[in-house]
């Protein structure tokens, strides 16, 4: 398969996309459930964003400590082990009796959700060079669709059976997908060139050596901070008057972003054609523009829906393009490249989540919109400067 054979079948590519979507969804289920968690476990509105932030911290640690192992050990076993441990973490969250246990479980959920990045890098290795952008685009579409559908699924399941059931259902689904992946993923011949400490140090070395990694990592930090600036406090806005929406209704807004994510899945094909830089510029402009309709969310749900579609289209295009460009840099270091890139993604996501709930409690939705637009503008300015 790929550099090891004849490429990836569409069925296996689809399974990889499903696995990635399910794994990353575990990180984002909490966003439309924050008010329910806060009410049951006694968290204040201004600090409830800590649930998302702790999950992102766990995710960041996983990126640093676990994802690089994809360049050192047999990835089929690594994927199976990570997903099995995810099942345990999800069960802990579903049964958490206190805030401390909840936060510990959420950190573990984030830690093992980085199986997503191992799978994306694995798919890039298994694909042929001619199809790599398409395969990465498809698998990464699963990631973004998982992020978006997580809110919808969490809303419906929570309204039907409570927020704890969301994590119980996900534990069962994760176990089923882990078994399927173990059956279909190929074994690898692993050549151990580095020890584990050397492997971790080499992630930092790659930042020194590869300018593309530095640029794409900063863009990931800024743009994913913008993404979580929208989604983390959104339930606090929509769940209160004048909208007073249920968890299911709030979750439906995740479906609005699916249209944008699906449209942006072609970004990988554009990268295959050498149009990665132009796609990045267009996506960053679109991201900034998306905050105009989002700013009207307090008075218009239609404007919010339009803004979500535009924002998720931009984020997906940036993410797919960024990864496609990175995988072409150092084929032997793909897991470490994506680990470095995604550490900045995680830092941005966590910072955006925590800051946006504080901003919302003090300055309302307009303050959140200003924060998101400012992050997008800085990202666009940084990209323009990096091209000089």
Task: Describe it.
The chain has 16 helices and no strands. The two termini are 39 Å apart. The chain has 388 residues and is mainly α. Helix content is 78%, strand content 0%.
Helix vs. strand class? mainly alpha
Q: Residue share in helices?
A: over 70%
Rg (CA only): 19 Å
Tally of individual helices: 16
H/E element string? HHHHHHHHHHHHHHHH
Name the beta content range: under 5%
Number of strands: 0
Q: What does the main sheet amount to?
A: none
Query: What value does the average pLDDT take?
Result: 84
Which shape, going by the Cα principal axes?
A: globular
Poorly predicted sequence stretches spanning 5 or more consecutive residues: 1-5
N-to-C CA distance? 39 Å
Transmembrane segments: 12-31, 46-66, 78-96, 102-123, 135-153, 165-185, 217-238, 250-268, 275-294, 300-318, 338-359, 365-385
Keywords: Membrane, Transmembrane, Transmembrane helix
InterPro entries: MFS, MFS_dom, MFS_trans_sf
Domain Major facilitator superfamily (MFS) profile: 12-388
């Amino acid at each position: 398969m790929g550099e090891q054979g004849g490429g990836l079948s569409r069925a296996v590519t689809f399974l990889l996309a499903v696995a990635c979507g399910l794994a990353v969804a575990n990180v984002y289920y909490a966003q439309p459930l924050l008010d329910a968690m806060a009410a049951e476990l006694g968290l204040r509105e201004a600090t409830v964003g800590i649930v998302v932030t702790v999950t992102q911290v766990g995710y960041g640690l996983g990126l640093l400590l676990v994802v690089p192992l994809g360049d050192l050990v047999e990835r089929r076993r690594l994927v199976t082990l990570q997903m099995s441990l995810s099942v345990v973490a999800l069960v802990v969250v579903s049964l958490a009796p206190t805030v401390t246990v909840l936060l510990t479980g959420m950190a573990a959920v984030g830690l093992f959700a980085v199986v997503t990045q191992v799978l994306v890098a694995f798919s890039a290795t298994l694909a042929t060079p001619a199809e790599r952008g398409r395969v990465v685009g498809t698998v990464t579409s699963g990631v973004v669709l998982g992020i978006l559908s997580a809110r919808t699924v969490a809303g419906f399941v929570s309204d039907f059976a409570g927020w704890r059931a969301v994590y119980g259902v996900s534990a069962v689904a994760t176990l089923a997908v882990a078994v399927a992946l173990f059956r279909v993923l190929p074994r690898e011949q692993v050549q151990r060139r580095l020890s584990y400490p050397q492997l971790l140090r080499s992630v930092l070395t790659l930042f020194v050596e590869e300018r593309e990694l530095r640029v794409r990592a900063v863009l990931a930090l800024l743009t994913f901070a913008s993404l979580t600036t929208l989604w983390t406090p959104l339930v606090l806005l929509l769940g209160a008057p004048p909208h007073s929406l249920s968890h299911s209704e709030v979750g439906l807004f995740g479906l609005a972003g699916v249209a944008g994510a699906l449209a942006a899945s072609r970004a990988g094909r554009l990268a295959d054609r050498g149009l990665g830089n132009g796609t990045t510029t267009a996506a960053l402009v679109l991201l900034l523009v998306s905050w105009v309709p989002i700013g009207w969310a307090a008075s218009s749900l239609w404007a919010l829906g339009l803004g979500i579609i535009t924002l998720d289209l931009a984020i997906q295009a940036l993410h797919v393009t960024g990864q496609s460009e990175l995988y072409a840099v150092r084929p032997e270091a793909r897991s470490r490249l994506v680990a470095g890139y995604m550490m900045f993604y995680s830092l941005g996501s966590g910072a955006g989540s925590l800051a946006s709930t504080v901003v919302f409690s003090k300055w309302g939705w307009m303050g959140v919109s200003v924060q998101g637009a400012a992050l997008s503008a800085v990202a666009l300015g940084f990209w323009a400067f990096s091209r000089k």
